[in-house]
Task: structure prediction
Amino acid sequence: MKPEAIHKKKTKKVAVIVAHPDDEVLWAGGTLLAHQEWQCFIACLCRKSDPDRAPKFHKALTVFDSKGAMGDLDDGPRQIPQDKQEITRVLFELLPNINYDLIITHNPTGEYTRHLRHEEIGTTVLSLWYEGKLSSKEIWVFAYEDGNRMYFPRALKTTGLYFDLPNYLWNLKYELVTNVYGFEQDSWEAQSTPKAEAFWKLSHKEDALKWLERGQTS
Ligand SMILES: [Zn+2]
Result:
């Protein structure tokens, strides 16, 4: 981390809402490291009781100079669908109830093929924002696709929020994946660590409604 960045005043209130410890790094790590002026709270809904991953998440928080909390939303291998009520319950236990400038979260259609928790959490966050139960000026959802498993997830270039990470940021991100989270170099996580990050930006609640309706019809 650049030493001069550490003392930057944190002026923007940002919440990052993810399913798993590592999602904050994989899909937004470079962006978070680049914005030292963001006062971030990272809510990770699953794996609070995972003795391996939970301490790694807290270590990552210190690298991001962020606050955060974990929950124990079901994350079993069977991926039993979780309803909005349960996801909301876990989220509201973790996330400080304030007016955010920005919320960053999963895409309701996911980032790769496929993980149900990512999709459910993205959908729930957009829905709560639309209903006025989550307050934020805008929402960014992760914008990646994997060609239906043809390749590792790639950031979409057409979103308007596409960040090609400079080498020093990508190296920091890769270190988080391999050193802090401890993924082997040949793991899916290490190999897929995106070198660019992209987001769809939603500024109006009607945008959220469109996303939700699209999800329901697909
Ligand atoms: Zn995940």
The longest strand covers residues 12-18. The mean pLDDT is 93. The chain is about 40% helix and 20% strand.
